[in-house]
Write a structure and sequence with these properties.
single chain, 278 residues, alpha/beta, Rossmann fold, six-stranded parallel β-sheet, 12 strands, elongated, binds NADP nicotinamide-adenine-dinucleotide phosphate
Length: 278
């Protein structure tokens, strides 16, 4: 079940407007017995919420890590580092150099490479790892889902006849839809995509969730969308398009999550905090 603390955009805004308190400044007050230095692998709403909880806990210090894909990332309440570590080797070195005691992988469920790197690096140096992720969406009554394994399968599932397609997959991977150039696409992104990646008929629109149901319905009508392609990201912020499709009787091509590995996993912020206290 999805924790109520992860629902809606209000939480995000509250977090962004709350005060900054550097966890590292508190390190001198932590004695050896209670020392906890968390690395939170971020890029998700869950990571921002967890960062706020860590910043408010006098027994914890932490740093949040972002890949650096977004030019204006939302603010976090913890010190933030940006950019890749340099694979498993680089992340392993970082854990040692920064004396990280716990890692929470709170990356987006489709960020498979960094999650695999975290499993390998943590195993290499014996640092405990917890995956914090949102539960996937499940089909509800009235949903018309076509479930596929990846972007290329999604492009194939659109069929041979030209259709008006709403792509809610982000800008990474849009090039996979070039194999189906017969469709008219509307791609919604936060950052501009690479023009060379786009299928021939593709309108790009910009937006960052949360999205309201009535706005999503209006958008689908305005753009005369016939079918939606989305990743099964889960969570409330991006769910309105699924509800809009249900309301309008539209098909949804739902891309399944990549394999998630065998690290302990939770959907609950409280469980992540208990892990950091362990
Ligand atoms: P990915 O394929 O799993 O990662 C590619 C490389 O980017 C990793 O090997 C790592 O470089 C670096 N990286 C990724 N996340 C990082 C982080 N939090 N901190 C530092 N380095 C990171 O990831 P992706 O799908 O490109 O996603 C990139 C970021 O965007 C993730 O943090 C994710 O949470 C966020 N995001 C992804 C999606 C999505 O649909 N994939 C959607 C929303 C947000 P090194 O090997 O050099 O360490």
């Amino acid at each position: 079940m999805e924790p109520s603390s992860l629902r809606g955009g209000e939480a995000d805004e509250a977090i962004q407007s709350s005060g900054r308190d550097s966890g590292f400044l508190r390190s001198a007050r932590n004695d050896a017995a209670t020392f906890r230095r968390a690395l939170v692998l971020g890029g998700s709403t869950e990571a921002r919420i967890l960062a706020t909880r860590i910043a408010a806990d006098p027994h914890l210090e932490g740093v949040i890590s972002l890949a650096g894909r977004t030019s204006a990332p939302l603010a976090h309440d913890l010190p933030t580092r940006t950019g890749g570590f340099g694979g498993v080797e680089g992340l392993t070195r970082y854990l040692v150099d920064e004396r990280i005691s716990h890692v929470v992988d709170a990356t987006h469920p489709f960020a498979a490479r960094i999650s695999a790197n975290a499993r390998a690096a943590c195993a290499a140096v014996g640092v405990p790892l917890l995956v914090l992720t949102r539960p996937p969406w499940l089909p509800a009554r009235g949903d018309r889902w076509i479930e596929v394994s990846d972007n290329l399968a999604a492009a194939g599932a659109l069929g041979d006849n030209p259709r008006r397609v709403f792509l809610a997959i982000g800008r990474q991977g849009v090039a996979d839809f070039r194999i189906a150039p017969q469709h008219d696409y509307v791609l919604r992104v936060i950052e501009p995509p690479n023009a060379d990646d786009l299928p021939p008929c593709c309108e790009v629109i910009f937006g960052r969730g949360p999205f309201a149901l009535e706005d999503e319905i209006a958008l689908m009508r305005d753009k005369r969308i016939e079918i939606i392609v989305t990743k099964n990201s889960g969570g409330a912020l991006a769910y309105a398009k699924i509800e809009a499709a249900r309301t309008l009787g539209l098909d949804v091509v739902m891309i399944a999550r990549p394999a998630s590995g065998d690290a302990p996993t939770t959907h609950e912020i409280d469980a992540a905090m208990a892990f950091l206290a362990s």
